[in-house]
Amino acid sequence: MADLQVQTTLLQQLEDDLLAIATEYESADDFSAAVANAVGDDALEDRVREFSTKWNDRRKNMTEQVEALYEQVKAIRENLDAVDQELVRALEEAAADTAANAPHAVPV
């Protein structure tokens, strides 16, 4: 039988990364506005704002997809952690039952 090994710390890191990406997407409008204000040229400022506005719907869609993936990864990690804890509990109980039911040597 093959062993299943899952590093939930990697799943946790993926969760953190996905959350950071979603946060960046959500704050992109503020960042674009700051860039537009900082360019120092009215025509370039207008182009930066136009570009940002055109990407709003696509960015919103991408944010929703990243957030959905985040939720899925989080659920997978939480379920794997729960299964692991349940397996540990079951093994501890089985070990305790085995120890309790094992024949004891009688000193002579």
Q: What spatial form do the alpha-carbon principal axes imply? A: rod-shaped
Radius of gyration: 27 Å
How many strand elements? 0
Mean pLDDT: 88
- Helix/strand-derived class? mainly alpha
How widely separated are the two ends?
Answer: 43 Å
- State the helicity in percent bands: over 70%
Low-confidence stretches: none
> How large is the count of helical segments?
4
Strand percentage lies at under 5%
Largest sheet properties: none
Order of helices and strands: HHHH
Characterise the protein shown here.
The chain is mostly helical. The chain contains four helices and no strands. The radius of gyration is 27 Å and the shape is rod-shaped.
Descriptive key words:
single chain; rod-shaped; about 110 residues; mainly alpha; about 80% helix
What's the arrangement of secondary structure elements?
Elements: H1 8-26, H2 28-38, H3 42-54, H4 56-101
Helix pairs in contact: 1-4, 2-3
Summarize the model shown:
The chain is mostly helical.
